[in-house]
């Protein structure tokens, strides 16, 4: 067996637990040796122990100051990401951070500067890039076999809307949900976004309006390479997690379908019925969560580039800000305005 | 405009009317100038007139003795096919005949001998060969791009069982229904059948047993070129006409799906529902009926080979006999026994 | 046989010929008795004769003044549509007119006023409404079974760009191509469009820019009923005619796939390959062209409402104008501005 | 955390390692505490240690005599299965055994008698029953919603043929490969098999004939409940693991498609190309291997019935024997002959 990356986990919420389980169960060359959560309780400790993490704490210093810890997983609440990146970088740790880095651009830039100064790696948790189907679409585009990309389309719809208590602190549909799609279209187009225009509406639940938010939005895009694009988001698609991408190029089109719960279908006098898409991101992106962590571990162990870096984290936030601005100001917004 | 093939129609039942409408409406270089039916009535005459056939009769001699008639369409009842082929051939007419030629092998051979003697063309109505999807499957196999064929599979299921009155005179499932599939597997494999084994059952309606018939049957096959195959038939598939073929070859597989009533589908919390296959042969093989007649007209006009000839008519009947013999004798039957 | 609608055809170009063939060959209760084209030549006359139209002329008066003619098919060049509608209406003829009515709003309104005054029917040639799959999608939405529509999406891409000589006089992508899609989204949403925003680019061929046109465009839409939508168009999709619609509603989604050239597919070590979409509108909307004419004939014979009326013709032109305005002025445009 | 089932593993070959990894990584309430292999070497010990198994041995007594061991996983070579079942049963252990139990019927019956005497559980490793799609097909049939089953079809093709050295000891295509499908059709039909007829050929490699074996076979089946069926197997399908089932019932049909490597597809002028099926059983049945073990652990912990029992193991062997007999004797064989 080769070297193992020892990790510290910050945040034991849903996404922190998910990464921790993947690392402990599926990544032979990585190991979480300490887990921190400000709300640490008995349930969390028992859960950690169950997957072999015996060292738990409420204090992030137990990660940053632990000499054995080579890499930090930042899975805490969004407002802590930038500070934890800075503290990790200053401690010389490699960093994996969930998106978004922060909702304040200056804070993001400060964090990225610290990362650069420290010369550590920073990988952002844009997990969808690691989905087999999306990745295949991007690989086909990037190979050039279809010629230049003309139009990039992403349809991204959650199965059910979050509770209003979450909406209140979510940062809005662009920063919380469509940010994944902004990263996806940049990934697919191989180019930065230069302009956005937003159409939005509260169709699922009028209460979204209370937070100056919408539950359904369509954003058109211009890319630096001349391509154009469109993303549509909805907080509620009762048939399951709808996650499809489509890139039209000079010589053809490459797109993908959803994963289904199963491949069985029933033919009767009333039609042909099959399974619906897998329910939500845990089901759809299960393998992708493992794949992104494998890539991070590889990057650390072998000194390779991370596949999703700080610039990707910055750009997706800028585009989210522009999309929101376009919604509020009812006009196309240039990224240069942000 | 070039030359037009003038035709005489024998039989104004469902299939005769179908061919007549296709010729009058869709084939610019063919025309039916006389139509005969022993049960000719006012409705038939009005229908004929409606599509431009003004000359109707009860006497087949009005076809055979008409000097203007270059080609005869035999769409009369099965027991008359062989005699009409003989009379057409002796009159020097080109012949299109619905399947089967006859249920008696000697009669078939006699008819084919007359055709050969007269040097006229005889095309059999195995319409499925002209279906776009089946034809594509066969073209891929015949091209050799997948190497040798190993296994040929045909799933062929009618949407609803015929009335028992029809079953009584149908000649049984092998002669009436599976005969199309015997021709199809020969077409796909590019080889004759040498052995069959039948498993059958009365599952849809026990009354089939009264006629020594079955409503559901699976027949395995050996081909002269070493390939093996299987056909499954059922008289009742409530979801519509199920017509799929599949050929496994050395380097891959080529198969087809059913045509659907439409391409719309609905995704809800209970699943994804699409349209069922088109209802029956009129819907599925609509274009194929036109295509086979175009080929016949071309063969007549340009002196080309017909795409489905007398030997194909003979072989499909022999295989149907062998399949029935296998069912009754509960053993594999060699085609050399027939 | 019942009553037959006698028709006069104006324009013997591609679309005029198409309708004529469908009427003569496939509609038993309609008949073209006179055909007019200002460039009438021997080829046109021979063609007309071949499908049973013996009366040809260069003068539209031979249609308007013919007492036998009950209905007029306007398939002439776009700039003549409005005038021919007016002259048909004044002559008391029923009218089927290809889209668009005109590119000048006043002219359209004048024509519609004459139609109303004369009390004749006017059906517009928005043929896609009669496509089996699109119609099924609309029927599901209109049934209310999925609740309110939230988002309407149309992907509409031609297989190959027209020659620049055509682009010069086409009226631009919005008036010439996307006009079909503006009608489609109104049909699917069951609601009028109130705002559009356009993103466009010359990606296929920079020469489009010479005509202040684009070859690729994405237009977002707001509807009067609160729904939002998006259409994407491209003049060139090398894999064939891409025509898909998708409506997301409260309780689910209904969408459709393209028709394919055939349903065969080949599985090998390098993947699974199937047929591409049918080539262009003649292949895809073949049945729909017949269906729209059947509905027009029914409307005339039975005094029913036409399925696509003058208002639909007017609205689609207004939206096309707004979409172009949005492109040129780089801002969202309200329909109330048009 | 609740009770954990402590297990002993017999056999550290491919399938033994697979089960061990699933248990150690994915089953929180089961644990392998001792692993035995007669060819135990350093590599195996290191591998075992890597997943937390510190106790390795060459002697099966270290499993049977270990008081802590509650359940035994028999993953050793086929000829040892029956004896290890007997020894496990006598030691009062719960048993999970890979298929087949043995190739000698008397030996199987002796083993099952010992299991019954000891009152322990015996689950057979027919993993395909736990595949999501196959299970859905069976659940639909078993629910009765489609009425009685009429025809059961299984297409089962391996991506590449095993080496001849394996063929020599495999027991032949029926005992080694189709045995899974015999179990599958029994599972789908919910009924025992009463008669088989085999057609087979050496098409992939003539060397199979040296072992009185075939590489391609089609077996038709009769079931006790009146249904009929067919299985086709081939040792080589270059496009990947082809695993499809189809059940035609009174009121409709339920079937499944293969899992694909990804859901992306490319449309170009030459067609539409998608991914091929997942490569082989490790890829296709990955989740199913975990699911069958979860069911076994549940059965042990909660005293429930095992989902696949000794009778299923016995019947599949009997049918495999009958299928081979049919091939060699060129006639249908009754199960009562075996």
Automatic annotation (TrEMBL), chains A, B, C, D:
Source domain of life: Bacteria
Keyword Oxidoreductase: yes
EC number: 1.1.1.18
InterPro entries registered for this protein in UniProt: Gfo/Idh/MocA-like_OxRdtase_N, GFO_IDH_MocA-like_dom, Myo_inos_IolG, NAD(P)-bd_dom_sf
Domain GFO/IDH/MocA-like oxidoreductase: 135-254
Domain Gfo/Idh/MocA-like oxidoreductase N-terminal: 6-126
Record's keyword terms, sorted: Oxidoreductase
An MF annotation (GO) of this entry: inositol 2-dehydrogenase (NAD+) activity
Enzyme class of the recorded protein, top EC level: oxidoreductase
Pfam families listed in its UniProt record: GFO_IDH_MocA, GFO_IDH_MocA_C3
Entry-linked SUPFAM superfamilies: Glyceraldehyde-3-phosphate dehydrogenase-like, C-terminal domain (SSF55347), NAD(P)-binding Rossmann-fold domains (SSF51735)
NCBIfam families (alphabetical): myo_inos_iolG
Family stated for the protein in its record: Belongs to the Gfo/Idh/MocA family.
The protein, known as: Oxidoreductase, NAD-binding domain protein
Species this protein is from: Oribacterium sinus F0268
Gene: idhA
